[in-house]
Specification:
With 430 residues, the protein is an alpha/beta fold. It contains 18 helices and 8 strands. The structure holds iron/sulfur cluster (SF4).
């Protein structure tokens, strides 16, 4: 037995209330459960009840055993003077407040449906990565959908909060913050770390000064990324990049940046090499002066495609690395990569801006965009798909990831609407 299950039973009053009485035998009536206290002190505040003929207002404290009151030293703590009911699984000992008065005790052990207790234990002890897998088919679709909608919004809020932290570190500079997020996005799964580092070591303010020249933007990106440090290339274009970067590095006093070994090429198709992604990023940076507002204001998926699908320079249309030609020409980033950038750059940025401005419309737009793009299933989402959950869009995928990371993995079934439904549906008997 765990205290959080007892708190759950108390909060939803999932126990037999017929002829309810305290351990001392006085009739008990619950008038108000109170609200859960996440701070120090008693578990529920502002509860109201009638013990015998007297009505009481105060706190309710939850423990597995009544004797935990002493184990936690509550008899010496003034915050517990207001406790009007001690809700326990087992009333093994009467307890008193500091002034010596008896705290009314309610024992739940014989008042909970054995079936509910068994279901709870099954959820807690299940070895499955999704502990409610066996119960999943019995949960109505509407409950699952509502929970998924909740986890999607929570996930977006969490992502938004993390961007707001970056914004603070960047002195409230939205443009630099959006630029860092965009660079990280261009790292996709494999090269996020070096791309993020590149964005910090090559500030947007420097890139912007040369935005009119795609060649100079490329020189800055490839140079600071460490791709111009090799022996002098034979081809004219990369040779010029080397010269240009040498000039720009000196001009802007750039510190030594990344090195070739920081970048990952393993298991990537040439079209996804970081050298190709840098060319695509350079094209986006050169094309847009106000990057942040473009990312926030683009109306729909098509507008984002227009924003990101900028033609790369002639050299990078035909090369995937310096000195290595591609078999087929690539003029710009592909649509599925753009959708990835919508999911990992535009949507989190919108979520952050919604929190910053307190304008929910930006969050709604983030959800709308996720509903319009597809995302490949992954190790997490496949588990729900195996249970019959159909992921139609990226919104479904992101919701499932949120559910898994925030609820299923840490076993927070008592906070989950699906878990709530499962427990509510428990049979009376074990
Ligand atoms: S948290 Fe919810 S969805 Fe996850 S296992 Fe528990 S009840 Fe099921």
């Amino acid at each position: 037995m765990k205290e959080d299950f007892l708190a759950y039973l108390w909060q939803y009053q999932y126990f037999d209330k017929s002829a309810l009485s305290t351990a001392a035998g006085e009739p008990l009536q619950v008038l108000r459960v109170g609200f859960a206290n996440s701070d120090a002190g008693p578990d529920f505040l502002e509860a109201r009840l009638r013990v015998g003929e007297v009505e009481w207002s105060g706190s309710a404290e939850i423990h597995v055993r009544a004797s935990d009151w002493h184990r936690h030293q509550h008899q010496e703590d003034p915050r517990y003077d207001q406790v009007v009911l001690h809700v326990v699984w087992e009333a093994d000992k009467p307890v008193h407040r500091r002034d010596g008065t008896l705290v009314p005790l309610l024992e739940l052990k014989n008042r909970v449906k054995p079936g509910m207790l068994q279901t709870y234990q099954q959820l807690q002890k299940s070895g499955s990565t999704i502990p409610c897998a066996a119960f999943w088919p019995s949960v109505p679709e509407i409950t699952k959908t509502a929970m998924m909608e909740r986890t999607l919004v929570e996930r977006l809020e969490q992502k938004g909060a993390s961007i707001l932290q970056n914004l603070t570190q960047n002195g409230s500079d939205w443009e630099q913050t959006a630029y860092e997020l965009l660079c990280k996005g261009f790292g996709f799964k494999i090269n996020q770390v070096p791309f993020e580092r590149l964005a910090r070591e090559l500030p947007l303010a420097v890139v912007r000064k040369h935005r009119q020249s795609l060649f100079q933007v490329e020189a800055l990106l490839y140079g600071q990324a460490g791709f111009l440090e090799q022996e002098v290339p034979e081809e004219e274009y990369p040779r010029n990049l080397v010269k240009e970067f040498s000039f720009l590095r000196h001009k802007h006093q750039l510190q030594p940046g990344l090195e070739r070994q920081h970048w990952n090429f393993l298991r990537l198709r040439p079209a996804n090499f970081p050298t190709v992604r840098l060319a695509q990023l350079a094209a986006v940076l050169a094309a847009h002066q106000q990057l942040f507002s473009r990312l926030i204001e683009a109306k729909d998926v098509k507008a984002y495609e227009g924003l990101f699908m900028q033609p790369v320079s002639a050299y990078w249309q035909q090369h995937y690395m310096i000195g290595r030609e591609t078999a087929s020409e690539h003029t710009s980033i592909g649509k599925s990569s753009v959708h990835n950038l919508i999911i990992n750059v535009a949507v989190p940025l919108l979520a952050a801006y919604a929190q910053y401005t307190q304008e929910r419309a930006y969050l709604e737009k983030a959800v709308y965009l996720l509903e319009k793009v597809k995302e490949a299933s992954n190790r997490i989402t496949r588990q729900y798909e195996e249970l019959g959950w159909k992921a139609v869009s990226a919104a479904d995928n992101q919701a499932a990831i949120g559910l898994f990371q925030r609820y299923c993995q840490p076993l927070h079934c008592l906070r989950c609407a699906i878990g709530h439904k499962i427990l509510k549906q428990s049979p009376a008997t074990a």
